Amino acid sequence: MKRLLTLALLLGLALAQPKELRLYTWTEYIEPAIVTDFEKATGLKVRISYYESNEELLAKLQAGGVSQYDVIVPSDFIIPSMIQLGLLRPLDKSKIPNLKNLDPKFANPPFDPSNTYTVGYLWGTVGLMYRTDVFKTPPTSWAVLFDLKEQKGAFTLMDSQREMLGIGLRYIGQSVNSTDPASVKKVIDLMLSVKRSSNFKGFQGGVSATKLLLGNQAVAAVVYNQDALRTAAGNPKYSFTIPKEGSTLFLDNLAIPAKAPNPEAAHRFINFILDAKIGARLANYQNSATPNAAAKPLMKPELLKNPAVWPTDEQMKVLEFILDQGKNNRLYDEAWTQIKSR
């Protein structure tokens, strides 16, 4: 009798398990065929929702999304805040055997020591996408946006606080992580001046900005390299560059919200993405660099040789990861509010 009760209980628990995985990620940030293959391999239905910035992701989690999604894809600098706010669930590494495929350089990141809460998904840069019929040679400076005399037509800035402030700081000769109030004030004044230009067409997410370029409504835009390369798709009318002043690097990560409805499925998904072949497919589809060491040899050779995907040593000297600044994050929050509201 006890055995029957135990079996009934186990069967009931199995039937009670959600049959779906809810993924909350950036727009157009995973190959649809990879999602289909995961569904076939697991019998789980994947439901995907999208966001356009880390700030939007954080706000959604704080507004109840922490219990609505199973997997999210936050960037490096936002993760310490998520951990501090109790929004992330520690990973059960025994359920992620493919974690061994992670490149050692990404296996113990400063924003999440020992990968307690996150694992690397893709990494890349923020730069300038432009029309080659307008810019006959690659723009060498952010001045083509920030200097009214250098502007050549309509453009957009990135609707992402730390990336855009960081680029402004690099333009005036400072680190993207500077918390010097005088330097941040200079960036505020710079951005407000840019906003007054008739060429300024607003702050846009990466996907929406590239669509404006494709629709001939802009000649340049600040975007993620992945969005630029995937959108251009070999079209010689568009190109991507990192101006000489430098820019930001990013590492996007897979994480599980603290109250995820199906953490078991979340672990299965993370392990699936970390498979070498799946990781290579993901990087090839996104035209992106990957933190998956086992996937890199399987990538398209032309991507491995493309500096827009894998920055050169010289470019890396002027590229910086965005770091969490703790209490000083308030300085960036206030600056961004002033820029967006005035």
From TrEMBL:
GO terms for molecular function: polyamine binding. Gene3D superfamilies: Periplasmic binding protein-like II. GO terms for cellular component: periplasmic space. Keywords: Periplasm, Signal, Transport. The keyword Signal applies. Spermidine binds at E28. The keyword Transport applies. It is found in: Periplasm. One of its GO terms (biological process) is polyamine transport. This is Extracellular solute-binding protein family 1. The lineage of its organism: Bacteria, Thermotogati, Deinococcota, Deinococci, Thermales.
